[in-house]
Amino acid sequence: MTKAVGRTGLNVQRVYTTEGVHPYDEVTWEHRDVVMTNWRDGSVNFEQRGVEFPDFWSVNATNIVTSKYFRGAVGTDVRERSLRQLIDRVVLKYVKAGVEHGYFADDKAAEVFEHELTWMLLHQVFSFNSPVWFNVGTASPQQVSACFILAVDDTMESILNWYREEGLIFKGGSGAGLNLSRIRSSKELLSSGGTASGPVSFMRGADASAGTIKSGGATRRAAKMVVLDVDHPDVEEFIETKMREEDKVRALRDAGFDMDLGGKDIVSVQYQNANNSVRVSDEFMHAVEAGGQFGLRARQTGEVIEHVDAKSLFGKLSQAAWACADPGIQYDGTINDWHTCPESGRITASNPCSEYMHLDNSSCNLASLNLMKFLREDGTFDAPLFAKAVELVITAMDISICFADFPTDPIADTTRKFRQLGIGYANLGALLMATGHAYDSDGGRALAAAITSLMSGTAYRRSAELAGVVGAYDGYKQNAEAHQRVMRKHAAANDLARTYHSNDAAVQKLATTEWQKGLQVGARNGWRNAQASVLAPTGTIGLMMDCDTTGIEPDLALVKFKKLVGGGSMQIVNQTVPRALKALGYQQEQIEAIVEFISEHGHVIDAPGLRPEHYEVFDCAMGERSIAPMGHVRMMAAVQPFISGAISKTVNMPESASVEDVQEIYFQGWKLGLKALAIYRDNCKVGQPLSAGKGGSATTEAKTETVVEYRPVRKRLPKKRPSQTVSFTVGGAEGYLHAGSYPDDGLGEIFIKLGKQGSTLAGVMDAFSMSISVGLQYGIPLEFYVSKFQNQRFEPNGMTDDPDVRIATSVVDYLFRRLALDYLPYEKRAELGIFTADERTAQVSADYGQVDLEALQVGVEAPAAVEAAPKPVGEAHSSTELVELTLGKAADAPLCMTCGTKMRPAGSCYVCEGCGSTSGCS
């Protein structure tokens, strides 16, 4: 697509665009009103009417981009009103800088580059990280980096400067991490003769500072990472900080304080504004493996001042993570073995979400590609197109460093010398499902690894070409041998990668070519960038690109909320499900029935016609079939060798998981070559109860209740009563259903004729009918029977002759859904997910009159099956809250500060589906 021409600049060829046609002229634009409210109090958080977006952008993407990324005072003429203005503000700045710094061969190449970037952003092929949209092209400092690593030394001046630098970074809309291990422990002496305070004491001040600063002016709480080496004498105190705070939350809650998520007293809890991680060495992990002793070392002299049992310390680390999800773990040996610049310093820390790892006082700007945009109609991944897109994006990312501003001089100096970049992707979970791969499968991991290898291989090859045009990074000469060694390690890992299908084999073959080219060009030119790739959470930008899944994550659940034009929301089955069913070979009628089942139940278990061996394709992070913890770890291990940095991801564990299970996850993370790992055990955090609550106060529970004994009374039917008879066919089996009612309404008896008179089947159905009839007369509600018997699965099953119930999993399933349609009011049927054909049609017609239709563009002509009928879901206002209500357990996510909804896990950080606010650095 593009090639380096000596030192004269790049020639850029068209990929997506057509010469003589501007990308804006190829789409249909429409005007929309954006009004965003806080559901808790009904207040309007944001309002801007008449904004302009392409007709294929979702309501949610429109709302988030308008409220978060449009610049200028709302209500004034200077306020941006169109996506064109936003894209032009950013792209034109990039192109101008590229021209000024000699990236392009001529003006024609620059124009093509401008059009290609514009087209890709317009069509949601990729997105830059949020600071680019916040700052580039405005009067503000041109901060483009989302991730920062700071440094702090063992002096009060340095510690106070740490507080200041973090504040400046949070204010700019980004996050920062640092390692506190240089600070003397509380077991060491000061030069004055007193005892040092230790790093944990200084964490308290930094935590309080972070808690008062909203990043980007008013966009989100500060995001930060605090790391401590495992050989620091205060490591045990560090491990226990958050766990002890959880004990405090319990005590205060039991004393009557409001300690719920968002409660007025929760602010008294400390250390909650940072992710904590322990940096473990290979020496320590070998000691854990062998059951040996491990030395804790003085910070200034390096001498061992205390020996501890390594396995016991590892157990305390795992115990704390089990109890409150902190601390995470970072594997120092692996991190620094893949370090391209060891002569310039070790890698000691990471950004808040753990994906960026490089030198202290450095930064990384991110961009992520939407993998679903490269999935062809035939289900194959378009590797050549993906490689061309990576070329364009990584070129733009490098150009940004030429004009970028930075919050501190040391960060500016390091970043300009080493030019760290973080290209990544989103929608991997959706891509794997759409191609019929289970997330936790050899085939799924092979495809993910091949795509990741192709991305990094292409990025480094382009970086080497850029070095031939505008020069290698300043620190390359000093680190040339190490950088080349790491490139060879990546290429060797690619050669060892195993493929399982023609799809991943084709991607891996191109990746091999890219690594070989990159090594050849790099040996001649060096590389322009010390780092090329990371896997970030892609929280807000994932929503901007209308992605179903974030970063490397699987889907949260199969059913989620969708915002409607004009306000409100509805529950939908994820767009990827029909496409996955088509890829697995199901016919249109089967797809409709399965998707309808999912819309009613939220899972695929016993879905009509779905083969059990395909269940795993639809496994999610939460739900009836959630992915096993090691499934998450294995996916990370599959792609880690092809990432320059690390992976932002949390491993979900069930509430029943033990401390030993956490130990095994952390130990296997080291064995499998990960750089960082964090876990979350369901419901482990006290401050995250379900909104409905699971119990009353202590006072209420202590009350003595009067016990009243109730006995059932049978209400018999009169001798003359209304009735109806329905003939039916299920899977070829014919029968009759006779239903008798009370005169004042209400079903009172049923008789079922199925099979020949005198047969065993006929006798069983007679006895079954009698049992149900007596139960109805004793007051058992019909809806109870329906909830118990619908979806029962046994032969005969299949197609019916009833237009309201097209497919039944058994005769019993059909009979009780038919009874529900005939005798239950709409509200009760809606709770059970049972509707007539006319009701479904009316709902879809009504909803589609006000819903943007991109959710239907999934390659399957089944609109009625994709959108689930709206049904009461309690007080859910986001996909996370919907999953919580369905499963009866709390998700690992805080409440959004802006709109009050429960945020959604995104990597090891969180994103709000409603307004796009994040707790991380995307």
TrEMBL record:
<dbReference type="InterPro" id="IPR013678">
    <property type="entry name" value="RNR_2_N"/>
</dbReference>
<keyword id="KW-0237">DNA synthesis</keyword>
<dbReference type="Pfam" id="PF02867">
    <property type="entry name" value="Ribonuc_red_lgC"/>
</dbReference>
<comment type="function">
    <text>Catalyzes the reduction of ribonucleotides to deoxyribonucleotides. May function to provide a pool of deoxyribonucleotide precursors for DNA repair during oxygen limitation and/or for immediate growth after restoration of oxygen.</text>
</comment>
<feature type="domain" description="Ribonucleotide reductase large subunit C-terminal">
    <location>
        <begin position="145"/>
        <end position="680"/>
    </location>
</feature>
<dbReference type="InterPro" id="IPR000788">
    <property type="entry name" value="RNR_lg_C"/>
</dbReference>
<dbReference type="InterPro" id="IPR050862">
    <property type="entry name" value="RdRp_reductase_class-2"/>
</dbReference>
<dbReference type="GO" id="GO:0000166">
    <property type="term" value="F:nucleotide binding"/>
</dbReference>
<feature type="domain" description="TSCPD">
    <location>
        <begin position="718"/>
        <end position="822"/>
    </location>
</feature>
<keyword id="KW-0170">Cobalt</keyword>
<dbReference type="Pfam" id="PF12637">
    <property type="entry name" value="TSCPD"/>
</dbReference>
<comment type="similarity">
    <text>Belongs to the ribonucleoside diphosphate reductase class-2 family.</text>
</comment>
<keyword id="KW-0846">Cobalamin</keyword>
<dbReference type="InterPro" id="IPR013344">
    <property type="entry name" value="RNR_NrdJ/NrdZ"/>
</dbReference>
<dbReference type="GO" id="GO:0050897">
    <property type="term" value="F:cobalt ion binding"/>
</dbReference>
<dbReference type="InterPro" id="IPR024434">
    <property type="entry name" value="TSCPD_dom"/>
</dbReference>
<dbReference type="Pfam" id="PF08471">
    <property type="entry name" value="Ribonuc_red_2_N"/>
</dbReference>
<protein>
    <recommendedName>
        <fullName>Vitamin B12-dependent ribonucleotide reductase</fullName>
        <ecNumber>1.17.4.1</ecNumber>
    </recommendedName>
</protein>
<keyword id="KW-0547">Nucleotide-binding</keyword>
<keyword id="KW-1015">Disulfide bond</keyword>
<dbReference type="GO" id="GO:0071897">
    <property type="term" value="P:DNA biosynthetic process"/>
</dbReference>
<feature type="domain" description="Ribonucleotide reductase class II vitamin B12-dependent N-terminal">
    <location>
        <begin position="34"/>
        <end position="124"/>
    </location>
</feature>
<keyword id="KW-0560">Oxidoreductase</keyword>
<dbReference type="GO" id="GO:0031419">
    <property type="term" value="F:cobalamin binding"/>
</dbReference>
<dbReference type="GO" id="GO:0004748">
    <property type="term" value="F:ribonucleoside-diphosphate reductase activity, thioredoxin disulfide as acceptor"/>
</dbReference>
